[in-house]
Amino acid sequence: MKDSRFFRRVVVTAILAWMVLFAFGPNLLVLLASFGHSRGAAFVEPGLSLHNYLRLLEPAYGRILLSSLWLAGGVTIICLVCGYPFAAILARTRPPWRNWLLLLVVIPFWTNSLVRTYAMIAILNANGIANRLLLAAGLIQAPLPMMYSDGAVLVGLIYALLPFMVLPLYAALERLDQRFVEAARDLGATPVKTFVRIIVPLTMPGIVSGCMLVFLPALGMFYVTDVLGGAKGMLLGNFIRDQFLTSRDWPFGSAASVAMTVVMGFMLLLYWKSNTRLSRREWT
Amino acid sequence: MKKILFSLLLLLLVAGNAWAAKKNLYVYCWSEYIPEAVIAQFTAKTGIKVTLSTYDSNEAMYAKVKMTGQGYDLIVPSTDFVSRMGKEGLLLPLDKKQLTRLGNLSPKLMNQAFDPGNTYSVPYMWGSTAMAVNSADPVAAGVTSLADLWKPEVKGKLLLPNDMRSVIGLGLKRLGRSWNETDPAQIQKACELLRPLMANVRVFDSDSPKQALINNEVSAAILWNGEAYIASGENPKIRYIYPPEGFGLWLDSLCIPKGAKNLAEAHAFIDFLLQPKMAAAISEEMGYSSPNLKAMELLPAEVRANAIVYPDEATLARGEFEVDLGRETERIYEKCWTTLKTGR
After folding, report:
1. Residue A94 CA: distances (Å) to CA of A82, A97, A167, A199
2. Over the stretch A99-153, which tens digit does the pLDDT of each residue have?
3. Contacts B202 to A, Cβ<8 Å
């Protein structure tokens, strides 16, 4: 009895220490740095001004934010549209097969995603596998310029992030009580109506967590735009990285990353609000 | 129990000492910049074990050295970073008594403004940032000057370095200004001039630009001469051009960062690299120019005569070494760079 309490205390303390040291602490440092300036040789000089946040509002930087949100939004929607049917099929498949399919979803995680992004070059480049296949099939006469385009970035991001969409959706769809679906059908709902009114609301938690898991990394995976997009577009992730590494303007980079966190927090809050309102309506 | 612990501790101490007695050297260098064979020969001769870490930008190296302040014994910054790091007290003065072969180096590259008297730095390699074209492509074959890069038919065929100074330098050179311009109005003008060039760019890459050139993804590029040297070895149709408008030159030097622990080993390594035989081997493999005059005599004739590696004096006169701009001017460059990269 005494032992188990001691064990619990140790575990809780360890987890708490971990969070403070590696999550709360660094974020606090970023927040503090965002109010500073870097006029001299030091990376960050302490200060208490909002001028880094005001600089973010300049049109050149605003465009970075907009194009990042646009791309990340596109990636999220495509992942959702492709991932939902996939997860539904996965949830309906019987166990031995289902485990194999799940394994296939997870296998890419065994390789570092940067390495996988470089592997995409071998597929997309002018002498790459895709072009050679198309040429051999006689569908094209000259190699298509697929590398270093927005399309390549889109494909790279979707490829890297699709599993993050599929897994939460699968978890939600697997838990879905089939009796609700049957009841809807018995009461005369069309398949479309069943889907929209019953299945989607019941799997909403999975949809939202999937979208979050895709949307946030899509804003930050700077190496995909660098490697596949030819570093032409500047996304929020690239921008923050450049502020820290190239421009040595840590306060400005910190301000951008705080702004990104705030935007995400705001979106989560909106979801949470609408969710509680929804469930309250359900129960009354 | 206590006894066991004590003896374990003792063992650890002894083992630790034995470990420390083994000589080590931690080198932090540009990727693909020191041939492995050279390092192996150094270890065989001196018994010093070399641990090599690499970086792909001065900025990354600078941030790491400045933040951690230890862990490396030797770094290879470019000129602008030598002066910056020297001023910030991030470099240790070299002990010239331990460097017996400094006389091998070209006097033209010694005692420069970025490090007067070579207090902190010993030149390692130098080179140019100029233009490469794949003459198999008729459009690229017609590119002979910087101005040609602006032609509409180059659209989608151009590679530029993902580096602020190298790109803005192109605009400044086209205006006939210095590669190190500090007049805000002129920088602004260069920036405006560069804006339409961005539409021609297929990719920005300064890690391994030779790949895109060899893979036929692009047929014109601004890159370092060593990259062009290797690319032209793979594909003889790839030619390196020193633009008539001018181009950038750079020099990387061996320096000992503050916080280095193995000073004697670091000096021994620098002196080892100063041997004509080693300097020649490095220049031949990497395709960059050696500052070592004695090494020149040992180089095979075809390398010495290769204009990519060793341009003639008249060509060199058009080149200009990159220097540190100072924080204020750098901010103007950065703003221009951001608008260029986002204003597509």
Report:
1. 21, 6, 17, 20
2. 999 999 989 888 888 899 999 988 998 888 999 999 999 888 888 888 898 889 9
3. 145, 148, 230
Taking contacts as CB-CB distances below 8 angstroms, the residues of chain A near B162 are 226, 231
Q: pTM for this one?
A: 0.80
Residues B129 and B167: beta-carbon distance below 8 Å? no
B164, B202, B212 member nearest A246 (Cβ): B164
A241 touches chain B (CB under 8 A): no
Which residues does chain B have within 8 Å of residue A144's beta carbon, measured at their own beta carbons?
none
Does the B127-249+316-342 domain belong in CATH 3.40.190.10? yes
End-to-end CA distance of chain A: 43
pLDDT tens profile A141-194: 888 888 898 889 999 999 999 999 999 999 999 988 889 999 999 999 999 999
Do A145 and B335 make contact, defined as CB atoms within 8 angstroms?
A: no
| Cα–Cα–Cα angle for B338, B340, B344, rounded to 5 degrees | 115
CATH topology identical between B22-126+250-313 and B127-249+316-342: yes
For position A279, what pLDDT does the model report? 64
Q: Is the Cβ pair A43, B63 closer than 8 Å?
A: yes
Mutate to test the interface with A, among B65, B342, B344 (most CBs of A within 10 A): B342
ipTM of the complex: 0.75
pLDDT of residue B241: 96
CA distance B327 to A40: 8
Pick the residue from chain B with its C-alpha nearest to A55: B335
User: Is B215 in the A-facing interface, judged by CB distances under 8 Å?
Assistant: yes
In this complex, do B334 and A126 lie within 8 Å of one another by their Cβ atoms? no
**Of B215, B327, B343, Cβ closest to residue A125:** B215
Nearest CB among B63, B204, B344 relative to A245 is that of B63
Mean of pLDDT values over B244-256: 95
Task: Pick the closest to residue A169 from A217, A96, A99, A102 (CA basis).
Answer: A102
State residue B226's pLDDT score. 92
What confidence category does residue A284 fall into, taking pLDDT thresholds of 50, 70 and 90?
Answer: very low
The second-level CATH assignment, the architecture, of B22-126+250-313 is 3-Layer(aba) Sandwich (3.40)
What domains can be seen in chain A, in order of their start residue? 59-283 (1.10.3720.10)
Length of chain A: 284
Q: Give B57's contacts in chain A (Cβ within 8 Å).
A: 245-246
Chain B interface, mutation test: which of A245, A249, A250, A252, most B Cβ atoms within 10 Å?
A245
pLDDT tens column, B136-157? 999 999 999 999 999 999 999 9
Under 8 Å CB pairs connecting chains A and B tally to: 69
- Listed by start position, the domains of chain B span 22-126+250-313, 127-249+316-342
H-run or E-run covering A61: helix A59-92
Contacts of B327 in chain A (CB under 8 A): 39-40
Q: Do the Cβ atoms of B323 and B182 come closer than 8 Å?
A: no
List phi, psi (to 5°) of B205: -155, 125
For residue B56, the one-letter residue type is D
